[in-house]
Amino acid sequence: MPQLNQTTKRLLIWVTVAVALGAVFMAYIRPEFMVELANQIWLCF
After folding, report:
1. 0.90 cut: is pTM over it?
2. Domain of 20?
3. Are 20 and 27 in contact (CB under 8 A)?
4. Most CB atoms closer than 10 Å: which of 12, 13, 29, 34?
């Protein structure tokens, strides 16, 4: 695997943070979706 330079690492970190914040925002906007997702994950076990 090739080494990632500092700029690429920083970009990947920011993209990951943005996706996580978007998921949290979705949880507040549509809580029924998050409950349904949690139920589906729970049913896998």
Report:
1. no
2. 6-43
3. no
4. 34
